[in-house]
Amino acid sequence: MKRDSMVFQLISSLGTKFFVLIGSFVISVIIARILGPEGKGIVTSIFVIPNLLVSLADLGVRQATAFFVGKRIYDVSKIYSSILFVWVLTSFLSIVFTIIYYNFFMSDQYSWSLLLIPLFSIPILLLNKYNEGMLLGFQQIVFINAKQIINFLTHFILVFILIVIFNLRIQGAALSIMISGFTAVAFSTLILRKFVKLKKPESKIAFEVIKKGITYAIALFILNLNYKIDIVFLEWFGGPKDIGIYSVGVTLSELIWQVPSAMGMVLFSKSANSKSTQEATNRSTRLLRFSWPPILFCSVILWYTAPIFVSVLYGEEFIYSASVIRILLPGVVAMVVFKILNADLAGRGKPLFALKVYFFSLFINVILNAILIPLLGIIGAAIASSISYSLGAIIFGSLYLKNNNLSARKILFLNKEDKAILGDLLMKIKRKTWRHK
């Protein structure tokens, strides 16, 4: 029964990812076609610092909340009330810091009417993370998927209205991100009202959540900084046009992560509720064995078709994005190992395992970006990121194997039980197909 439940959640998550993925392509193409490389770069640039700050100001509350709710350590209503108190505090501090950053580094380039949009997005992004942590703890993956679909649909409609119809261009693109995030938060808040009732927040619970979550927050911040540091360097040494072209390459290459991300969300929820370490380890390694062959196949196809893909969808202005894709793909594929195995460890309350590895990876990325971007521009940024991702994934995978007494064969090749599970699943699909006929 548990296996069927997990299979359903995985299929639901993958279906949602696929639907959102196709739609996101359309949104990305519309924005790129209308705004061009420079406009696309500006939208990417103004949201970088708010997104990085959110990953730090999040304080790991999303993961810690899922852990505490999953283990039923405290009353779930008191947990939610306490994290809402934390949300108010972290939102205020993040907004203040972002205002300072904008004032010193961006206000001379962009108007405050534009910068206020990502600024006001901060509390929305934070509450979205906190609500998702509660839903993960309750294992309500279906509602999380529904939230993502609502977010996408709202984003799509707003892009069409604000950019295509009203021609608001950069402001329209930024507003569509903020408002769609708000609708997703409103939906998740309404859903949570079925599971929790607001009570007086308790400082003890808030402290314990932050204490548990701070390790998640630091690990997530280092990881996100590793993903975004190339954009920061490009902003210093390049310009909006370079960022626009590079961001398209990054977005398309990182589509490979959609499958492991969907799996990782389910895996985190399951690991937070696992009764034993062995159960969690078996689940995560099996998912990795199932996922990497199709991911590798898709990456090879993307490598060969990247120039055609980019020119047809985005236009010749973005053709250099194809080179970015090809350079990033080896590192992106390697990161699949980290995406899946780290979700297991994070769900078991071990975020520091990743921190040790990716602090080193970030250091390498910073050094390489500082050297290569002034020399090679966006190509240098792609080389730096790909090397950093690959090194981090290899070291993380090796440490995971050593920590769990596993061999590389155990996570790379299907065993008899895996084949039996796949055979059973195919038989169920076949039976359902015949019934419909």
TrEMBL record:
CDD domains: MATE_Wzx_like (cd13128). It is a multi-pass membrane protein. Pfam families: Polysacc_synt (PF01943). GO terms for cellular component: plasma membrane. It is found in: Cell membrane. InterPro entries: Poly_Biosynth_Transport (IPR050833), Polysacc_synth (IPR002797). Its main location: membrane. The chain crosses the membrane at residues 7-35, 41-61, 82-104, 110-128, 149-168, 174-192, 213-237, 243-269, 290-312, 318-341, 353-372, 378-401. Keywords: Cell membrane, Membrane, Transmembrane, Transmembrane helix. This is Membrane protein involved in the export of O-antigen and teichoic acid. It comes from Amphibacillus marinus. The lineage of its organism: Bacteria, Bacillati, Bacillota, Bacilli, Bacillales.
